[in-house]
Amino acid sequence: MNNMPIPLQVVVVGQGAIGSLWSYYLNKSPHIKLSLLKTTKTSTAQSQQLTFTNANGLSYSYRCNLALESDIVSADLILVCLKSIHIVEQLRKLSTLISKNTAIVLCHNGMGIINRLDSTLDKKNIFTLLTTHGSYRTTKQHAIHTGIGHCDIGSSNSILSNPPPWFKTLNQAFPKLYWHEDIVEKQWFKLAINCVINPITAINNIQNGDVINQKYQPLIKEIASEVSEVAKKENIKLSAKDIIDTALKVAKSTQLNSSSMLSDILANRETEVDNINGYIAKLAQQHNLNAPVNQHLTTKVKALIK
C-alpha cells in the first residue's frame, strides 16, 4: 500500500525573474508536482532545461515540465508571476480551464487588478503574494537570485486568520513565507514605495541608489503626500513620512539595482505605471481628490515608450 502523500499540483504562469525564482524552489520540493505555463509558445517541447544561480553564486541546471491544459484543470494552485498589465487577459484565457477549487496566487507590482478579473473566477480563491527577494534573468533560461528576502501572502478579497492547507507546502519549498490575514495594507505599503522609486528611476534613467540624491527630495515629498491622502480615503493608515523614510531606505539597500520600470523603458516594453502612479491618480479622482504629481509622472513614463 502506498502511503506517500499526494503532491500539491502547482502551475507557474510567467517565467520572468520572480517566476523563475519560484519555479526553481518549487521544482526541488518532493511534495510538489510543478509545471510551467509559457505565455508564448515557441515550440512543441514537453519540458524545458533551465539554469538557476543561487544567492551564494552556485549554479544548477534542472528540467521542468511545460503545462498542458490537463495540468491547468487539475491544478491545486496557479502562481501567476506576470506584469499587472498582462494578468487580466492571461487569466481570461485560462478561466474555462480553472477549477472552482483552484487557488490563484498573484505576484505583481501595483494594484487595481482584482476587480478587473473574469467574473467566472471565484474571488475567494484569489491570493496576493508580495516579495522582497532580488532576482533577474541573464537569458530566458537562466535566473540569478541576487538578494535573499522574504514573501508575504494573504487573501486578496477577505480577511483570513488562518492560511490554507497549501501554505505549509509552499513555505517548506521556499522558506520565509509569511501569512497575513489582511494583505491589503502590506500591498499598499509596497505600492507607495513603487510610486516613489519606479517613476523617478525610469524618467531619469538612474539606478535605485540615485533616488536618495537631494535634488529628488521635493518630488518624493509630493508623491508621498498624495499617496498618503488617497490611502486615507481607502481606510489605509500610511503617513507621508513613513512612505518617504521607507522608500529612501529601500533605494539605499537596493542601490545598484535597476527598477522594473526602468528595465521596461530601456527594453521599450510597456510599463506597469497605470497600476502604480496611475492607480493613485485614478483613485484620487474617485474620491474627489487631486493627485497631479502622480498623474504627471504616469503621463511622462508612458511618453517614454516609442
TrEMBL record:
Ketopantoate reductase C-terminal domain span: 182-303
Q: GO MF annotations for this entry?
A: 2-dehydropantoate 2-reductase activity; NADP binding
Record has Oxidoreductase as a keyword: yes
Q: What is its EC number?
A: 1.1.1.169
Query: Where does the source fall among the domains of life?
Result: Bacteria
Pathway involvement of the protein, from the record: Cofactor biosynthesis; (R)-pantothenate biosynthesis; (R)-pantoate from 3-methyl-2-oxobutanoate: step 2/2
Q: Which GO terms describe its cellular component?
A: cytoplasm
Asked if the Swiss-Prot or TrEMBL record annotates the protein with the keyword Transmembrane, the reply is: no
**Top enzyme class:** oxidoreductase
**Leader peptide range in chain numbering:** none
According to the entry, every stretch annotated as the Ketopantoate reductase N-terminal domain falls at: 10-156
Known SUPFAM superfamilies for this protein? Answer: 6-phosphogluconate dehydrogenase C-terminal domain-like (SSF48179), NAD(P)-binding Rossmann-fold domains (SSF51735)
Q: A Pfam family in this protein?
A: ApbA_C
Reactions catalysed according to its record: (R)-pantoate + NADP(+) = 2-dehydropantoate + NADPH + H(+)
According to its UniProt entry, the protein's GO biological process terms are:
pantothenate biosynthetic process
**Record's keyword terms, sorted:** NADP, Oxidoreductase, Pantothenate biosynthesis
Q: What does this protein do?
A: Catalyzes the NADPH-dependent reduction of ketopantoate into pantoic acid.
**What is the similarity comment for this entry?**
Belongs to the ketopantoate reductase family.
Identify the NCBIfam families for this entry: apbA_panE
Question: What protein am I looking at?
Answer: 2-dehydropantoate 2-reductase
